[in-house]
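Q: My hope is that you can spare some time for a protein that puzzles me. Underneath my words sits a plain record pairing an amino acid chain with its backbone structure tokens. Those tokens are not coordinates but codes from a learned vocabulary of shapes. Thank you; the sequence and its tokens follow:
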Amino acid sequence: MDMSLPSMIRAGCMLVLLTSVWGRALAQSATSIRTTGRLHIRVVDESDLPVAMAEVQLDRRGYSRLDLRTDSAGIAQVLVAPGTWTLGVRRLGFTRATANVEVDTGDTRLTVQVERQATRLAGMKTEEDMPASPRLGEFERRRALKMPSAVITRADIDRVNSPVLSRMLRGVGGLRIADSVGSIVAISGRGNKPSRINGGTGFGLAPCVMRMMLDGVLLPPLSNIDAIVPGDVHGIEVYNGPARLPPELAGLRTDNWCGVIAIWTRDR
């Protein structure tokens, strides 16, 4: 097709403009990759055993504070900008640990050791109807309104006095406790659910594992219930399906067809 000289000039200008825009996009993408580092944090006790559900905080001037929790292997991972970050680790029953960590553009690995510490309580006065924190107040409100399918209170935990939290869920209607590759999980009584198989090319049926939430944060699938110490727990809400989930927990409406177990820790 013949093109006039003005048309060729316009086409050439458009090609230069597109090349410039594409070049800037590639440069920005490369800059983003270069300016991001992965921080891999492992929290262990004095015996080098993993400390699960430890609270990990990362602070740096000019950036929002990052709040993480370690998984059942004592590990927390996050992508952050390279530089010096202030790290804080705490877990009820352990000493608090703080450190400055220098994050590079690649993988930065850090092991933090915390020591077990007995908590000594001074003389205390116990009163009924003492005001709770807002999160525990909401738990008590939902319990009073009988919104959950089942509720486990602090009094229930003290009465059973079990070293593992899963013991508190045995016998709760609509679920059963099972071991999934070393992780203790709750299986819904709603039956199996559709699941991708053969590398995602087909569908099959898989056990309906209930999702678990800790203090408003949805934990990864197949999180270990027994990684949470019963002494840390204020109460547990069990929702046997999404239809019973209250509006304030609407953020959990992701893969919750099998139900949700909401665990609330005690005020520190």
